[in-house]
Amino acid sequence: MDRTLHILLTEEGAEAEDVARLTGYLRDELLELDVDDVTAVPGGEAPPGARAVDIAEIGALMVALGSSANALSQVVAAVRSWLGRFHENRPSLRLEMDGDAIEVSTATDEQVTEAFRVFMQRHSAAEARP
Fold first, then answer.
1. Which end of the chain is more exposed for a tag (fewer CB within 10 A), N or C?
2. What does the DSSP 8-state code read for residue 90?
């Protein structure tokens, strides 16, 4: 089973340097968790409205979860906490694992919490299957 979580961070109208800074802060926080690694990933297609620099490349992280049973829940909780610190100009996040993805951007805090809960539930159930 693929134990890798892909995270794409974008912010509408943001400069590439701002997205890189935000991504770096998130990466630093994730590296403090029980994960194997968090690496910046050259991305594919830039989101609509992206500047000349490929914003998708700047805001993409790959989190190698390793064998820890709690790694995914720790990462999702950290991402949720990190995202909750933004009150204006909240960045958009896309989390993808095993072909399953969620995207949050203009959602309320309650909607974000519910989306993350459902995502966790789907992947916890998948990991429990033999």
1. C
2. P
Taking the C-alpha atoms of residue 8 and residue 20, their distance in angstroms, rounded to an integer, is: 11
Tokens 């700047």, residue located: 58
Per-residue pLDDT for the chain (130 aa), expressed as one digit of tens each?
A: 458 999 999 887 778 888 888 899 999 999 999 899 999 886 445 445 544 444 445 689 999 998 877 888 899 999 988 888 876 777 888 999 988 999 988 778 888 889 999 998 888 755 544 4
**What is this structure's pTM?**
0.80
Using CA atoms, how far residue 103 sits from 33, 34, 66, 94, 98, in Å, is: 22, 24, 23, 4, 15
- Calculate ∠ Cα 113-31-108, nearest 5°: 15
Q: Which neighbouring-strand residues pair with 63?
A: 5, 38
Q: DSSP per residue over 50-107, as a string?
A: --SS-HHHHTEEEEE-TT-TTHHHHHHHHHHHHHHT--SSPPEEEEEETTEEEEESS-
Q: Write down the residue that tokens 């909607």 correspond to.
A: 111
